[in-house]
From TrEMBL:
It is an enzyme of class 3 (hydrolase). SUPFAM superfamilies: beta-lactamase/transpeptidase-like, Penicillin binding protein dimerisation domain, Penicillin-binding protein 2x (pbp-2x), c-terminal domain. This is serine-type D-Ala-D-Ala carboxypeptidase. The chain crosses the membrane at residues 12-31. Keywords: Membrane, Transmembrane, Transmembrane helix. GO terms for biological process: cell wall organization; peptidoglycan biosynthetic process. Its EC number is 3.4.16.4.
Amino acid sequence: MLKRTTIISRAFLLFGLAAIIITVLGGRFLFVQVSQEIDDVDLETLANERWTNNEPLEGERGSIYASNGDAIAEEVTSYTAFAVLQEGYEGAIDDPAETAQTLAPYIDMEEDRLAELLTSDQFQVELGAGARQLSFEEREEIEDLGLEGVHFRPEPRRYYPNQAFASHVLGYIDRGTDEAVMGLEAGFNQELEGEGGSMSYQVARNGVPLPGNEEEVNGAYDGNDVHLTLNSNIQLALEQAMASVDDEYNPERMIAIVANAKTGEVLAMGNRPSFNPNNYEDITNHTNYAISDHFEPGSTLKMFTMAAAIDSGEYDGDEEFESGTYDPGYDHTISDHNNGEGWGTIPFDEAMERSSNVGFSKLVNEVMGADILYEYLDRFGFGRETGIELPNEAPGVISEGDLDAMYTGFGQSSAVTPMQQIQAATAIANDGQMMHPYIVDHIENTNVNETVYESEPEIAGEPISEETAEEVREQLVEAVYGDNGTGGAFQVDDMSIAGKTGTAQIPSENGYLSGHGQNIFSFLGMAPAEDPEIVTYVAVDRPNLSEDEQGTQPVSTIFNTVMHQSMQYLNLQPDESPGYEEEGTPEADSIELEDVTGDRSEQAAEAVSEQNLEPFILGEGNRIESQYPFAGEDVIGGEKIFLVSDDNWEMPDMTGWSVRDVVKFSTATGMNIEHSGTGYVRDQSLEPGSEAGSHDSVAVEFAHHEEEDENDEQEEEETDEA
């Protein structure tokens, strides 16, 4: 009986313990069921994280477009290589040492470092910056190595299809950090940069998505597209011309800007040294000289000094001054550019044409005063940023004081940027209205197909009157076409040019650099002269010139090429430039010129003659390689048509040729022409019949028939006296 009682007691004890355990566990399960937490860990969240796959969605960076819609910076698909290391996992690295030895040269990594990565205790590893943003061709090269365990994933990569095209304007994206560096890429990074999203879905133990499960998507947003005012054709012509000058003259640097005089739109902008944004590792110059560098401009600033003098009402163009040298006091002597010889007593109206430093310093010191000059320089926007939509614009430095004002008047002492000169020149081109320069036309949000920003032409000020602007343009025309003008090299076929040359001295520790070619040579010009549509600035810094070459040669190669191309691409109508007024030329119906390139020389000459034109064959080749004027252009009966059959030819006798003929010859052959005077060719530096080529230069002197007759009579009188 006692034994039975003991058994029953034990049973009740066990039952009680079981009940307590069940109660505790049940309570715990109930607590977990209700709270869904264990030790402050949310079980639902833990389950979701374990059985949910999250994939990032990339927002694509916006593209940058030229004015014609061509993409000049865009996203393309690239590939990043990575290695799976987990042993036993299908597709893992099989032999780390051999893989490191084979792969290292393809991803620019030391073999030892790669071997260390491939033997680390991780499931998979990234293979460094050299394995990122690989092109399709680079991926194929690595795949052809047959390396087990090396895999690829697609990623966006920034690509610049036109290579060095406007590279300092665009900037670039650093592949290692994905950071925007310089240019519009950096300045408009917030607008261009996309916003990432994600996609999540439930998966089974093997990672396969569960059937019937809905995906949760947080959409990504693409960055905005930025559309520029840059004209692809003009920019390309500028890049090619600058590359040609770079090859031939190897200058320290070059700067060029082309702008619409009526609106302020920047049509082209270039720098040298340049770089390819796709291979930015080779960059040697991070500075956009067109906006971020200021320097003493030289004589291009004289047009603004003259505008100040005229507009202030203090100017009398007929008043005369003694050129050569000028001692204004202050223990300084100012000299004209011809070693201080000058041209005797001349009127102020000739100061621009002859580029007289003495004349402009006297205008400042004796005619209008330093205060008026500084007031007008401020009106023209010098000394402050233009506000163009590019980062790191320099404000320039305008000097102070009476002596500095005299030097500033002819382009020394004060420092300005090329973009400031372009902006100020629009006032002279645009009848007194100065246009704010801009390079961004509009910005598009492609997610909703909406224009979120649109530029409009903006008047930056009216520093001078319409009458002043017109008078300054007339003086600038004389600087190009006048008998004593310094800008004769900048005459462009069928287009009148108004502009001013500049030869800026470069400061050094011991004053200014000296020696042949040790200057910044420039030209600031506009066309057509009577009502300009285009303003262009070109500067070439310390080109390698031979002793008989002038700084205008590399500058005019760029300027003339760009202006000619701009005329075509902007559909500007040819005008009658002052240098092309041919005496006694009768009006005639125009003739559309046939294309004779590729024809035999004799047949080409015959075809041109049948059009009532004068063929002029250069070279001894059997077939015509090029012609000028070009096929399809309108010409006048009796015009010379230059047909080039070879790279070398005999120098023609140019006696009696018009300026138009000489310019056509220069365009057809690539030969540089240095000329003086107006009218018809009277003398040339290269003897007729001597061997010549496109890299040669020839000096040509023009004179009117009356001058030739007077010279002949004078020579006869001198002969009789002898």
